[in-house]
Design a protein that fits this description.
The protein has a five-stranded parallel beta sheet with strand order 1-5-4-2-3. The termini are far apart. Helix 3 links the parallel strand 2 and strand 3. The chain has two domains: about 120 residues, Oxidized Rhodanese, domain 1, CATH 3.40.250; about 100 residues, 3-Layer(aba) Sandwich (Oxidized Rhodanese, domain 1), CATH 3.40.250.10. The protein contains nine helices and ten strands. It is α/β, with parallel strands linked by helices.
Length: about 270
Amino acid sequence: MPVKKFFYLYLLTCLSVILPFAVQGEEPESANPCLITNQEIIRTSTQQDITLVDVRNASDYQIYQIPDSINIKLHELKAKTFLKGKRLVLIGYGYDTESLLKACKTLDSFGFKTVQVLRNGIAGWAMSKGRSIDKPSIIRSVFYINPEDISQIQNNDRVLVIDLSSQKSTPLSDYFQHITTIDTSKKDATKQISKILTSNSQQYDYMIVVDEDGQGYASLYILNQNEQHLPVMFLSKGINGLYDFEVKQAAMANKKEFTLQNLKGCEN
């Protein structure tokens, strides 16, 4: 067979394998062995015995969870002897993936067979389940992030923040590197954010949308009905909630400093 003809035949064979996945828009498999995708979980669970461990708080877990998952706090896992020797998949919110990946490496040394983390967490799973998830309670338990969790994000360089608030100066830059401001008075915010999502889906892990008070997110939830882009999280109570959190933190720090100063004074 001529070399040229052989090459074309080889190319057609490759395309016949690749194109069906490209057409279906199947979720790309993770290059990180500690990460596992929704599709990989579905495939693996039919072949092997895996245990899905949801490490979110109990109230959020009760509102929405992956079928057959169990709810165990991360710090309690080491003591769960019945899980030793099993293959575990940790499920978080999505914005806590980096901290779970660190725990994944630690747990490997405690007798667990394999420990992986669900890519994009419960938010990514919910997106893959389509348009049926429209209850406000589910949306809040899955796609909302609280102000106190902002400072715990360890991979903020992989987060794109969309600022919809009308304030000229906000504390967002103290927490995030990539912030895009949208003037909602000029254009439809949903269309603008959707365009940004499409052009940045490979660069970031997820997006956090911040408005003034957290009241304007209802119309934006539609953004999470497309599993082909990164999850969209919403900051609970908006920029005002972040301000209130910082005020409380400052008050606690001042109280602690005041107490320490008094204690030092008693020693003299």
